[in-house]
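ARCHIVE CARD
CATEGORY: sequence design from structure
SOURCE FIELD: tokenized fold
FIELD CONTENT:
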């Protein structure tokens, strides 16, 4: 499907209409978009804004895999699991005993479960996918909400920490969600967000073929310095950023290279998630070759990411902000 007007909507973050095209992009369903760079706030956004039907199609259960795991490649799932545990341990160190924590887009609830193993915390999760939410509910003692965060859902100044791991780029109203987050987060509360880094080497080299653009699910992107400045204006003080991520960045390079070499994007990624219906022209052997490419290059790409991380050019970034409202 082609859209006739490729820039028919304003910036998803600030509503300005002043923008320039960054790249063209096509999703796995064949819909064409552009990524526009807002000249007012610096946000990069998917344009035109996808329809409800397009978003529903993109968020069907295959996004979380057919099984309990998001990935059907056991080794990958084990590695991802390890990094989730590490993430939980690091974050818990920043929290007071008995802290109240909200994980927006908590998926299967694994991160919150690992936090619960570290001590006594009051845990809240928001997950809009019913299947994932059901799995999260079955784990640990998590208060779960399955609707998008709205004003009035939680009391003002009620959380010590709020986390959004690779969720911010999915938000349909990111500026409004940030406003609510700031309201329900205590003064001096911690806000942790990870997201794709559109200023990364991967983004600039691969452009429309870059894995982390993930159309039409990812709607907004920022360069780290733009995002930090924009958060500063909202009285969120940056405590630190981290770039190195074995969980996200080396695979981004693997899949983006495969996207350049293939006619269809994200073939390996979709198969690893258990989506067997996607790109049936890629038979078992071709997918096996892609898996071999992945396994053989992974260690090298971890090293590449160490170098990229040193200069803030990794494919993803994690921000730690303190609420100075
Ligand atoms: Zn804007």
């Amino acid at each position: 499907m082609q859209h006739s007007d490729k820039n028919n909507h304003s910036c998803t973050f600030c509503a300005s209409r002043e923008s320039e095209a960054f790249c063209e992009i096509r999703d796995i369903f064949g819909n064409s978009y552009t990524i526009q760079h807002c000249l007012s706030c610096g946000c990069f956004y998917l344009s035109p804004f996808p329809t409800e039907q397009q978003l529903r199609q993109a968020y069907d259960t295959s996004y979380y895999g057919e099984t309990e795991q998001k990935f059907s490649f056991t080794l990958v799932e084990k590695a991802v699991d390890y990094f989730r545990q590490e993430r939980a341990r690091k974050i818990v160190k920043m929290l007071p005993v008995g802290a109240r924590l909200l994980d927006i887009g908590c998926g299967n609830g694994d991160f919150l479960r690992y936090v619960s193993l570290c001590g006594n915390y009051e845990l809240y999760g928001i997950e809009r996918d019913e299947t994932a939410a059901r799995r999260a509910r079955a784990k640990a003692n998590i208060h779960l909400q399955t609707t998008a965060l709205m004003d009035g859902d939680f009391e003002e100044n009620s959380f010590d920490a709020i986390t959004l791991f690779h969720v911010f780029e999915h938000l349909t109203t990111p500026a409004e969600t940030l406003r609510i987050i700031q309201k329900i987060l205590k003064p001096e509360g911690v806000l942790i967000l990870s997201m794709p880094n559109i200023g990364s080497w991967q983004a600039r080299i691969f452009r429309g073929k870059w894995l982390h653009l993930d159309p039409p699910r990812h709607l907004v992107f920022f360069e780290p310095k733009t995002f930090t400045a924009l958060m500063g204006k909202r009285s969120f003080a940056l405590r630190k950023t981290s770039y190195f991520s074995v969980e996200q960045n080396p695979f981004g390079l693997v899949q983006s290279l495969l996207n350049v070499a293939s006619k269809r994007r994200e073939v390996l990624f979709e198969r690893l998630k258990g989506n067997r219906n996607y790109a049936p022209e890629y038979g078992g052997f071709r997918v096996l070759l892609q898996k071999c490419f992945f396994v053989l290059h992974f260690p090298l790409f971890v090293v590449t990411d160490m170098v990229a991380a040193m200069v803030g050019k990794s494919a993803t970034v994690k921000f730690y902000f303190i609420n100075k409202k």
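CARD ANNOTATION: The chain has one domain: 61-323. Residues 1-6 have pLDDT under 50 and may be disordered.
SHELF: design records, drawer C
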